Amino acid sequence: MSDFDAGVRLVYLAAAVCFVVGLHLMGSPTSARRGNLLSAAGMAAAVLATFAVVAHEGTITNTGTIVLVLALLVGGAAGLVTARRVQMTAMPQLVSLFNAVGGGAAALVALDDFLRLSDGPGVPTRTGVATALDVGIGALTFAGSLVATGKLQGVVTGRPVVFPGARALNAALLLVAVAAGVVVVADDNVPLLLLLLAVGLVLGVTLVLPIGGADMPVVISLLNACTGTVVAMAGFVLENPVLIIAGALVGASGAILTVLMAQAMNRPIRNIVLGGFGGGGSVEVVASSSGLPVREVTADDVAMQLAYAEKVLIVPGYGLAAAQAQHEVSELAELLEARGTDVAYAIHPVAGRMPGHMNVLLAEADVPYPQLKEMDEVNPEFARTDVALVVGANDVTNPAARRAGTAISGMPILDVDQARSVIVIKRSMGHGYADIENELYTDPRTGMFFTDAKAGLATLVQSVKTLVG
């Protein structure tokens, strides 16, 4: 082995270590930023090392080098600008879009290498297997992630799109994909590899369309696991250890997160993949559809309760992100803390539209991490809470989950209704993604403060300041 090859392998090893350590650091919001930067540094080193290998071997023309550099610059600039400009409400869509890009790129890399090898001495079996998996799963991930992005953005309806014979069609497509993959591995068959690509694209659409908006956090993490898998497969095709390690890490962590998200919703993954749960979350209701009375409160009423409460639990949901009200809720919490109130945030694992959505949102407003309490930790505290302030959360606070026969039966929820008093900040009585009425809203201890979260929280800040002088 030459000194150059040894140096490249050492760089790849260092990059892999950066990925592993970075992923470990991302396990805590307090160190996640460092983990992200460390992982990015590892990837930058790996990319530079790969460029050095290409230049050393002379396997690319000057024109090819220019194209690669331009692609790197354009793609990097587009990613940087998009990530910096995206609103927190659109972060799930961006993550899903990145999943699509990653899965699609890995599939194209494997396809290109397979075409090159098939024109030569033949494709090794191990490369054929990795290519078939890469192209099939990558195409599915690409199309499925685009559909998920459309659902989250509102371009595609968030309701389950189910048509007669959908599951039979998916089963038939899966059988075709498996058969095509077997022939591709055995016979280096390029036309069937292209068929596998097409079937993967169709499956991505037909599998994600029937899944309702309530399951989108699980779908995002599942597609993220698929992206990691195809990147690892591309690494096997190219015999690149960095891609294998990075893809395996993403795939494994995405799979674990998918399981945890499914457990948090108490829904088997197979039921989620089969689809059918959740409406679009867009139903606007001005009164209780059950006919039960709803107690409406004003900003002064809420300010009075908050100002003299000893313990307050804030329950954030997607409505908080949609209104971009994280800074206002943080200011209100700081104001209450200055008066000696014990304030914490109750975080449901699937609140928002992607895993960790609320944690990221509140971290942006510099909310101290120790104040973010996970569901299992915080649920026993509601019975000792004077005021539970729900800001835009819906299904994750619905007591209907404790009863059989509802769309969310069995789903673990935040025990908000156990608090002495509940205040819900919401624009209307609109339903969440499960498309059922929240029974918390008609509870006699619940006061509904109908307003936009950002404006309502700002008003509460001023009302509390006025009240306490």
- The helix content is 55-70%
Along the chain, the helix and strand elements come as: HHHHHHHHHHHEHHEHEHEEEH
Overall strand count:
6
Task: Report the C-alpha radius of gyration, rounded.
Answer: 25 Å
The termini sit apart by: 76 Å
Q: List low-confidence stretches.
A: 281-286
Report mean pLDDT, rounded to a whole number: 85
Number of helices: 16
Number of domains: 3
What's the overall geometry? globular
Major sheet: arrangement of strands? 3-2-1-4-5-6
Structural class: alpha/beta
Q: What proportion of the residues form beta strands (DSSP E)?
A: 5-15%
Largest β-sheet summary: 6 strands, parallel
Structure description:
It is found in: Cell inner membrane. The chain is built from 16 helices and 6 strands. It has helices at residues 3-25, 32-57, 62-85, 91-118, 125-153, 166-187, 190-208, 216-238, 241-265, 269-274, 299-307, 318-322, 326-338, 357-364, 375-378, 453-468; strands spanning 311-316, 342-347, 372-374, 387-391, 421-426, 446-450. Strand 2 (342-347), helix 14 and strand 3 form a beta-alpha-beta unit. The longest helix has 29 residues, at 125-153.
